[in-house]
Amino acid sequence: MTSPRRTFAIISHPDAGKTTLTEKLLVAGGAIHLAGEVKARGANRRARSDWMKIEQQRGISVTSSVMTFERDGITFNLLDTPGHEDFSEDTYRTLTAVDSAVMVIDAARGIEAQTRKLFEVCRLRSVPIITFVNKVDREGRPVFELLDEIADILALDVAPMSWPIGMGGEFEGVLDLETGGVSRPEGDSRNFQGKVDTDVTLPERFAEEVELAQAGYAPFDAEAYRNGDLTPVYFGSALKDFGVAELIDALARHAPPPRPQPAEPAPIAPNADEVTGFVFKVQANMDPNHRDRIAFMRLCSGTFKRGMKLTPTGHGKPIAVHSPILFFAQNREVADEAFPGDIIGIPNHGTLRVGDTLSERADIRFTGLPNFAPEILRRVALKDPTKTKQLRKALDDMAEEGVTQVFYPEIGSNWIVGVVGQLQLEVLISRLEAEYKVAAGLEPAPFDTARWVTGEAADLKAFADLNRGAMAKDRDGNPVFLAKSAWEIGYVADRYPKVRFNATRER
Fold this sequence. Notes:
- By secondary structure, the protein is an alpha+beta fold.
- The chain contains twelve helices and 33 strands.
- The strands form eight sheets. Strands 28-25-27-26-30-31-29-32 form an eight-stranded antiparallel beta sheet.
- The two termini are 34 Å apart.
- Residues 34-46 and 60-64 have low confidence and may be disordered.
């Protein structure tokens, strides 16, 4: 029996319309009753999934949220990922927890840099992708050009499932290639209500386009899609509510239910009896009044029951999960049970970390959730020296979440934070002030990047003794080499062939 769960993420370049599409999916799924337009002022400016202060100020998503809704007997777990290019690390971890993805492309811009980067992350894990070409109610590029670009740049077969009848000022609706029905715009141009017309004769130009498309592109193949070799392509306008219902239907019909997850000593199938899951995200202070910390766990197998005991790989001591949470963005409700594919939140006091496996036994470990070497390093300058303890706790909290990494140099007392994108530094300073009441600044560090070093104990000691000024520990005590440039990493690696300089470290 196929599981009634669809756990998926939405990926896109910034400004492709991902946040608006998220809202409209939630409206269509009955999870919310009114979508606030992205261009609205004041409190309506942010989507329901954007709750952090800096997100509200800047109108962008900088952390991953989970939203669960039901439609026609299927539970959809939507993981809203950061669209900004500076948040690839958090986005990567979120993509480890999904079974499929929706890729949103702007009809006027086509494939953009961040879209391609996120797609490659999906390809690493063979995550099947449905493509949604957004904003067809505005002027855009020719449809064939867009489809060919997707096929060429992403090396995917494309299977158009719908077709826009005109774009921009000539937009007359969207044709469903399977049923032949056309969703037509009606009413106020700012709030179209699509009417499906099943008795329609297409203008000759569009009829020829459709005939060419059906002859020239691959037909939809469910197996090729689920293997990550083909992407079905839907056209629409999230803002004007075109194609959103069809997208949900496509996820329900074609997207895979929970899939086996990579683990040691063997992959874990969703129909296994024992409860297993892994933590792909930790979020502190979702409710600043309670100073809470929530571990987001993807349930991989078994039927989870509230109150059951699970053993985390981090310390091997069973913990009782008394108050598991199901999410709707910042809102939450206690979950009495959960099933493979579900995302549950586990309140804790720092005992759970990203990458931890939780299971009824202690001999399973899920794999593939790495840390990435930071691309930007900064020294933290505390403005009030009496707040050192609070700063240490804040940096540890955010290191656990993956917002930053913290390095403690062997020589000197200045802590160094590392991030994979510039905007994370703004998030760090904003959250230090808003959540921890710590005023701090960032100063240039004498280093440009970092590498985790591994090797035989004697080789590592010899290397560290000769390079003490560039050695540090991460918050887990792992040795780290701080480098002034990528060139220096190559130079030092050549001089010390018995030491490995790692750009990633699996948790």
